[in-house]
Design a protein that fits this description.
This protein is α+β, with helices and mostly antiparallel strands. It has one domain. It has three helices and four strands. A four-stranded antiparallel β-sheet has the order 2-3-1-4.
Length: 101
Amino acid sequence: MLIYNVTLKVENGIADEWLRWMQEEHIPELIQTGLFCGHKLCHLLEQDETEGVTFIAQYFLDSAENYEAYISQHAPRMREKGFTLFGSRFIAFRTLMETLD
């Protein structure tokens, strides 16, 4: 199984609005692509939140083909929605991981 992991630092002033958007719009739209078999959204604890709140969004995939399809067919449009709504008030760091168990 693959995990598309997105770590995000969101400015304090928009954190509640951003979280609501993730839960009500972004994640449901991503899952509706049919390419992912699950997800988790986490709040990273024990972090200095002076400059913002850190979240981790993990999306589970059955194959590299599904990941590539998401990146090429959906990711640019979905990322643009976030930038349109929140501009530069968040940063994201993306990684792809493979489970070993």
